[in-house]
Each structure stands twice: as structure tokens, then as C-alpha cells.
Amino acid sequence: MSRIQATFVALAAQKKKGLIPFITAGDPSPDLTVPLMHALVAGGADILELGVPFSDPMAEGPVIQRACERALKFNVGLHDVLGYVRTFRQTNATTPVVLMGYANPIERMGQDAFIAAALEAGVDGTIVVDYPPEECEEFGVAMQAAGLDPIFLLAPTSTEERIMQVAKVGSGFSYYVSLKGVTGAANIDIDEVSQRIAAIRQHITLPIGVGFGIRDAATARAIGSVADAVVIGSRIIQELENTPPEHACAAVQTFIAGIRRALDE
Length: 265
Fold this sequence. Notes:
This protein is an alpha/beta fold. It has twelve helices and nine strands.
């Protein structure tokens, strides 16, 4: 059982919902990435989602695009991100870490080399936005053979065929994009999300995490009532943008602690 799977089993036993915060590796500066990861865990995160900076993101809204641009100014790449995870693992051997990014850096490294490096660093899973499940079955099989979880996105427009393909190839959890748009968008329709999750559960037994557009405790609580986990990213990046670097860790820990309390109420 992978760390991600074990985490969801433990959450279900406690009748709790998962909290999955996102930060972009290298933002606001490389030396803050690992301290921020620990601060998120201290605030109540169950799984960490670590963004791999990329110059041409297609799913990120302007907030996370700015985070990528800041990280790329420090020349932060996939090798650096793996190094951050390796350092994090020196003092945290339990919290799952999922890398979220795009295919180009993985393809440049080579899939087999990436899987080996990710396993060695202590990564638990990946969300690769432009790896559709029907085109990367071999990657999914290789990931699972190494004990890593390939996690795939589902959207309001996903067909039944796509849902079944994710059920076949994915593991760990499934990531449902709550709206037709980019990260950081607003106006989530909770009823629509609930209906779509019910339809997805007809084919997928994996836990379902919901992201895109979750900005505050009230939205997180509402989504938590219908999903197994909530993913929150752009709002954390905004917190970092509005906070001096020396107070960044305290600010994100406080923010995530508020979301944690809302989910547990």
C-alpha cells in the first residue's frame, strides 16, 4: 500500500476529509520550499502537492503562472524539485508528496529515469496535466510497479469513457477539476460538483480530491461534504505574494490551519 493510499485509509477510519495544499517549488525562493512544506504539514495538511515550475502551463491561472515565473528566475527545474523532496524526507517520512506538472521535463529526463529518481527522492505520486490516461498506460504501470501513484485529472466535461480509463490506469486518488477553467477561478457550483462526483463514483473506487476554485474555509467545507479531499493552491500562492518572506511559513501554516478546522467541524 502506497503512502497516499495509507493516508486515505487512515482518514476514512477517522471520518475525516483530506487536505491537499499546493505550492510551486522554488517560489517565492528556493530556500523557502522545504520550510513551507513543513509549515503546511504543521497546519494540518495530509498530502502535499508540489508544483514543478514550467514555462508554458496550460491549466494554471495567472496566480500560479506568476509563481512559476518567479521560480524559473531561480532556474528551478525538475532535478531541484526532487532535491527539495529528498531534503523534506530527512525529517518527514510519512506525509505523501505528489509532484504536479507537465510532461516535457519528464520526457526530457526519460520516464524510467524519472520514476527511479522520484522513488529515490521520496516522491509518492504524480499529476501530469498533459499525460492523458489513454496515452500513458505504460507509464502508469511502471509507476505502480515502483510503488508510486499516477494520479489523473477529471473535469466537468469528462466522458464516461475517460472516467473508465482513469479507473483503469490511475491510483492513489482521482483529481476532479471542479469547473471549466483554470486554477484560481471562482464560482464553484457545489450541486453540480456533487452530481459529477456521484457519476464518477459509479466507475472509480479511488478517493476523489476536488480542486480549482477552493479559496476559503466555507468553500472547503462545502466541497469536503461531497468529496474525499480538497485541493487548494492559488489562494496559498496569493498568501505568499502578500507576505514578507520572513513571515511566509507562519502565514501559510495559519491559513491551512483554518481550512483544517473547517473540514473537521
